[in-house]
Amino acid sequence: MAHHYVVCIEFREPTYELATAPREQPYTWTLKDIVARDEDEARLLAVGRFRHLASLSGVGWVREIETVRVSEG
Questions:
Q1: Mind listing the pLDDT tens digit for each residue in 41-55?
Q2: Any idea where the domains of the chain sit in the sequence?
Q3: Strands, DSSP E only, in the chain?
């Protein structure tokens, strides 16, 4: 049975921070209404979407995921 999840991904852009000031807090990207069987699948789907969208962004810096939090939505 599928459930709805909210997934919060905290990430850094270390190569961008080399050219600017380092950030105190990581960036946050939240995906709402992820439909998955369980939290593990929700995490995998969200990270996959994050990486896909990052690849389409056209920027030259790396995005490194620090934490992934999953909660039922």
A1: 999 999 999 999 988
A2: 3-7+26-72
A3: 3-12, 27-36, 64-72
